[in-house]
């Protein structure tokens, strides 16, 4: 296992924990649907910051472009299916 892949796993695990933990906290304050959306945003923000700082090499691209590329990727890979699945009930 490469160092980069190990860092990716650790950063992803921390982001997942931030997602779950914030969802629990948000659920005490708002409805479930909003709690899931807010927690997803927390998890994606943590993932972006950790991946950018500790996993991937620095990029010369402006931060707005990096976010614009990271956000939709994360949504379609992780968030979209989860949010869509919740609407079937």
What would you say this structure looks like, in words?
This protein starts with a helix and ends with a helix. The mean pLDDT is 83. 9% of the residues are buried. It is 82% helix and 0% strand. The protein has three helices and no strands. Helix 1 packs antiparallel against helix 2 (32-55). The protein is globular and about 40 Å long. With 89 residues, the chain is mainly α. It has one domain.
Question: How would you sum up this structure in a few lines?
Answer:
By secondary structure, the chain is an all-alpha fold. It contains 3 helices and no strands.
Q: Output the number of helix runs.
A: 3
Beta-strand percentage range: under 5%
Main sheet overview: none
Number of strands: 0
Key traits:
89 residues; mainly alpha; 3 helices; 82% helix
Chain-wise SSE layout:
Blueprint: H1 3-27, H2 32-55, H3 63-86
Helix pairs in contact: 1-2, 2-3
């Amino acid at each position: 296992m490469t160092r980069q892949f190990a860092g990716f796993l650790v950063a992803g695990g921390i982001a997942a924990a931030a997602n779950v933990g914030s969802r629990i906290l948000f659920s005490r304050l708002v409805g479930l649907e909003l709690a899931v959306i807010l927690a997803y945003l927390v998890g994606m923000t943590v993932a972006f910051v950790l991946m950018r700082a500790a996993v991937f090499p620095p990029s010369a691209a402006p931060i707005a472009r990096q976010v614009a590329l990271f956000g939709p990727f994360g949504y379609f890979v992780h968030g979209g299916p989860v949010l869509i699945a919740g609407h079937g009930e």
